[in-house]
Amino acid sequence: MTKVSLEIKIKAVEEYLSGTEVKAVVARKYDIRRMLFRVLVGIYEKHGRKGLLNPPLVTGKFRIKLVEWKQQHNASIVETCVQFAFRSPGSVQKWEKIYLNQGKGVLLEMHRGVKNNRKPRPTKTSEELTKRELILAYTKRCLKKINSLEKASNKKISQVIISLRARYKLADLIEALPISVSVF
Is the pTM of this model over 0.85? Predict the structure, then answer.
């Protein structure tokens, strides 16, 4: 479905109210979801055209008031949206779920906006750990005659770093191995 402008939604509601078509037919004609169209018609009937043109200001207190009214009156999502002249039934459903699962506090702290649905980047620490492990494993293979890195001389560690520079950044190598930049 494409996004339908508010003017077209109002036109669809007025056409429904003045015509002989049923809600489902008018909603399909204007490509408006049926539940949303029921909400729009209800708001128009209860609050008039101004109810659709001037939506309420959404704050944390508004969210809580709306959800608590819905719970107290055992109302449907459509009835709740009509009562508050609120045009977003999906938000009401989401807020009620948050209210029931996490409490009022979360609704108060919510901020308006679009959530970022991108996958989080892997943290540097996990990335660095794998690099560090690879560097240490390769270094131990190069220095197999010596049992530990601490016993290796700076010259031998420097040779290992030179051989690994094609694979890893110098900063990662210096950080992983027991040698300072000035000594290298």
Answer: no
